Amino acid sequence: MNPSLRRGRGTLLLAALVGSACACEGPKPPRPPAASSRSGGGAKHPDVPLTAVPAAPQVQAPPPEPKTEAAPLAVVVARPTGELFSEARPTITFSKPVMAVGTVEHEQAQAPVASITPPLAGEWKWLGSASVEFVPKGLVPYATTFQVQVAAGLVALDGTKLAAPYSFSFTTPRPDLQGEVPSAGFRWLKPDAVFTLVINQPVQELAKHVRLVAGGKEIAVAVAAEVNIEDERRAKEKERRYAREDDQRTGFRNRQTRYELKPVSPLPLDVDVSLTVLGTLQGKEGALSLGKDQVFPYRTYGALRLEAVQACSLAPCSYGPLLVRTTNRVDIASLKRKVKVTPAVAIDWDRVEEAFGGYGFDEKGGWQGSPYFSLPGRYVPGTHYSLELAAGVQD
Description:
- This protein is mainly β.
- The chain has three domains: 75-171, Immunoglobulin-like (Sandwich), CATH 2.60.40; 177-235 and 250-299, Immunoglobulin-like, CATH 2.60.40; 306-389, no CATH class.
- It is 11% helix and 30% strand.
- It contains five helices and 22 strands.
- The protein has helices at residues 3-25, 104-108, 229-235, 247-250, 332-335, and strands at 75-79, 82-83, 91-94, 115-117, 122-126, 131-136, 145-150, 166-171, 177-181, 195-199, 210-214, 217-219, 221-228, 257-263, 272-277, 294-299, 306-311, 322-326, 339-342, 353-361, 367-375, 386-389.
- A hairpin with a 2-residue loop joins β11 and β12.
- 17% of the residues are buried.
C-alpha cells in the first residue's frame, strides 16, 4: 500500500476519535474574564484608600462582689397560737426547703421536726419541702395548753441551720358554761328546785365549785345527774341507716355535758337566791379552769298577789279580754266563783287561760315579766270595770 495513504488513514482515524470524544463531553461554558491586575493589562479599577483600624474600646468590668454567707434557716409562720376553737393541727413554715420531696416512707423515717409538750399522739406530715403539719391521732384533750418547739440546729437543704430554738403555744377550749335552767332572773323557784347546767366538756368536782345561797344562808348542792349530750343524742337514733364515723379517726366529738344540781335541803319561800359557779372549776381532760365566777340570780315564789289588770295584751282596747297579772301562776279550776267583775260580765270560762308572760331582761339580767290569766267575755266599750279576787284562789 502507498505509505502516504497509510499516513492519511491514521490521520483520519485520530480525527474521528478526537471528534467522538468531543461529542461526548458537550459544549463547555465560557470562562469568566480573568481578574485584572494592577500591574497587568486589561481594564483598570480606581484605587480604594485604606483607613486605620480604630483602637478597641476600654471595658470597665465591676469588681467581683465579696462572698457572703447564706442567710440562716428561720421560721416564717407558726400556727395556731392562743385559744383554739377548731381542729388542733400545729403547722410550721420555714424560710427555706428543709425536706426533700420523697415517699411517705422516707418522711416517716426522718426524726420529728418539732416536739409537743405535753406529748400528743400523732405524726408530722410535710406539705411540700418547707411547711410541715402535725396530724393528731384521736381526740385532742380539752382544757390544755400545748407547747410546740423546734430545736436549734435544724438543717435546711442548702446546709444552713436554725440558729436558736423556736417555740409557740396554743390552748384547747377551757370549761365554758353554755346554758342554765331556769334562766337567770327566774322568780318562781320551788323549795325542791333543780338547777341544770350545760358545760362544753366534763368537769371535775362540780358540787365543790358551786355556791347556792338562799335568804342569806348557804345551802349545799349535790350532782343528781351527769349526762353526755352526744351519747344521749346517739342513743335516740334508733333508725339510723349508716354508721357514724369513728371519733378517733375524725379527731372530733361533741363533749357537751349536762349536769343537774339539787339542794340538799328545801329552799325557803319568798327569798332571793343566787347560784354561783366558781371560776376555779377545772375540766376533766386538762388543768385549765372556767376563769371567772359566774353568778345567776333567782327568787323563790311567795304569796299569791294581784299585781295589775289591763285590757288586751299589747294596748288598751274595747273588746277585752281582761288580763290579770299576778305574782304566781294560778290554778284555773280554783279561780271559778272567786272572781267578781263590776259591772257584771258574762265570762267565757271555756276560753280562760293562764300562762307566764314576759318581755325581756333588765339591766341586771333579771326577767321582766310576770304570770297572768285572761278573762274573755262580753265587755262594753267605754265602760270602767273593777275586779275582785276572793280568798281561796290557788297557785
